[in-house]
Amino acid sequence: MLHLLHDLSVSQPTRRSHWVEVEVATLEQLLPFWDRRELQRISKNLADKGVLQIDSAPLLSSDCLRFSFGNARKSESRTPPLPTRPGSAGLIAEHWHPDEDLLQLLALNHGISRDFALEQLEDFIFYWRERGEVSHAWGNRFRQHVLRAWRLQQQQSAEIQRAPAAPQGSWYPSVDALQILERSGVSREFIDDAVPEFVLYWRERGDSDNTWNSKFIAHIRRQWARYENALEHEMEPRPIPTNWQPNEDVYDILRMANIDIAFACELLPEFILFWRDAGSPQRSWNTKFLQHVKYQWATRHHLGGTARAGLGNTAGAAANAPATVFERLTDRSWAAGLVDGV
Fold first, then answer.
1. Domain range spanning residue 309?
2. What is the mean pLDDT of the chain?
3. Are residues 198 and 319 both part of a single domain?
């Protein structure tokens, strides 16, 4: 009823006061789902709430409803009548502004604040001036524009609330995600080793998303490609040189794993000293250093297992170093205990 009465007030451009008169028969025609008794009850309820001012007899004993929005009697005694609206359609004015009655309607009937409605005004005027269309009811079009913007905001807010939070320690990729990665040639052990660092990164960022499995697949594919390219295929194992430095591919892999490069650099002198003293030759020191850094990073952030000396753990496996590329890829002795705790 409130919307209808507002539209009726807009459609009477020649009235000379705040008061609007409408025949009860017209209300019954436009609101056929309510009888006269219901029309009387609802109009009285709006008047009791202060939304309407009624200056006519009850509808059960009158053929006309004379009404105004807000405190019409007081405003008429203080201010001159509102300027009349032109009867013909026209372009929207550059500085067009909605009536206060319309802003009150949006607040009372839809819970839309005045500030939110006015925030839509600039886009509304720009849109209709660009289109160059004419209208005799810009207020009604503005109401529809604000309602659409409000519903869109409510929908977006609901989607954000429904979006899963950052993955927790118990998160694990779905069966479909695992099958996709394994069909791409990624070993299951490599996937398991990457879960803790993935969970840690997104948990610290605190982002919400509903595509964690897709993000994990893209993350693993990038790491796997660089990991394979970083493998060195030398014919004979060799001791670590005194001035050994990991190549840039190792740092690229660490960056994709969201591991601090400065943290890796701090581990390098101890790593070289340990293996210089151990004297154990290896086919790929890049791979060995990469495994050592990932293990130490996971241990520092408590991603599973109890803290152990990563170098010692690696040294223990040196005597039985894997002999093939596949064995090196699937060698998980350095990461024992990391995945089970996730």
1. 175-335
2. 75
3. yes
